[in-house]
Every structure is written in C-alpha cells, then in structure tokens.
Amino acid sequence: MPRWVKNNGLLIANAGLFLAFLIGMVFSGVATYNEEQSSHGQQSVDLLAYIQSGHFIEAVFENWESEFLQMAMYVVLTIFLFQKGSSESKPIGKEAAQDEDPRKAKITADTPWPVRKGGWVLVVYEHSLSGLLLLLFLGSILLHAIGGAEAYSEEQMAHGLPAVSTWEFMATSQFWFESFQNWQSEFLAVAVLVGASVFLRERGSPESKPVAEPHHETGA
What we know:
By secondary structure, the chain is mainly alpha-helical. It has helices at residues 3-7, 9-39, 47-51, 54-80, 113-117, 119-125, 128-158, 166-170, 173-199. It folds into 2 domains: 1-42; 53-199, no CATH class. Helix 4 (54-80) packs antiparallel against helix 7 (128-158) and helix 4 (54-80) packs across helix 9 (173-199). It is elongated and about 65 Å long.
C-alpha cells in the first residue's frame, strides 16, 4: 500500500463513500422525480437537468446543512462543556493540550505558518475550524432555501397557486420542517455517542476509551 494512502486512509475512505452515496442519490433521485413528473402528466428530465433542479439541490443541501451545523456546534460546545467518563470530552479538572496558548508555544520549522506569523492571522487561525464549519452551514442552508423555493414553487404552480421567492419559502413551515427533521437527528446521534462512550468500548478506535479503562475516566 502506498504511504500516502496509508497516511490518508480515513479521509480517502470517507470521500469515496461520499461520492458513492451521492451518485446513488442522483440516480435514485432522478428516477423518483420522473415518477412524480409522470404522475402529474409532466415531462421527465434527463440526469443533467435533474442535478440542476430544485428537487435535487434541496435534497442535498438540507442534509449538508444539518451535518455542518452539528459539527460546528460540537466543536464549539466541547470547548466549554464536559461529560464525565466520555471519550468525547476533554478531561475534567486537568489541563488539555487543546487549551494551550499558541503564543507561548516553542516555534520550530514545522510550526504552522499562522502561529509563526501571529497577530490577527493567528486569531483567525485558532478559530478556523469552527469558522469553516459555520460558513459551510450558512452556505448549505442558503442553497437548501434556493433549491427548496424552486421545488415548492413547482408544486404550487401545479395546483394553480403562485410561486414563491427564496425568502418567502424560508418563512414557510415546510422549510423549517425540513431543517428541524434533520437537525434533531444529528444532535441525537451526538448525544448517543457522548453518552454511550462512557460505558461502551470499541477496541482500536480513537473514538473510544481503552477497553479496560474505568467508566469514570474521561477521555484525554
């Protein structure tokens, strides 16, 4: 196995699974969409037209928004909040490496450039992970609204009702139902992982404490 594959296996595997499932979503989505079109006596569309449709854009980004919201909130909440016994929490009552002030770090050739630069560049860098996730969330929720407005308008016009703008769609219960149904499941999954990692183990996984470690020990 090439070294770069071994060194980046987790990223490669997840990116590959993402692409595989996205392709599956495209093909199953266009089939579903065309079934709906046919039932309403409307023309079917090809694959290229489908991936530009509100139906597809809405379906993709309403899921992405919940994922990025979950990860952004998780990154921020774990700065301040703890869960005794969980591998997902910083140690309670102990110094964590993540809390160290980079301004006091020993500068070497391998130190990230923003840390060596300092000033506002370092301020941005030390919050860059949550910042990126928040921007991805905001972009996804906007695209969810844009795609959703198009899909919602198609349905409205099929029933002889007026189309809606993006902002009008964001004021509908439909938009918030689609968002909340995804958000609630994301935070449920995080809560299950945080709580279950207190008592359950997965040997070899960094998401788990060592198998023999006591339940009351909090992850480092």
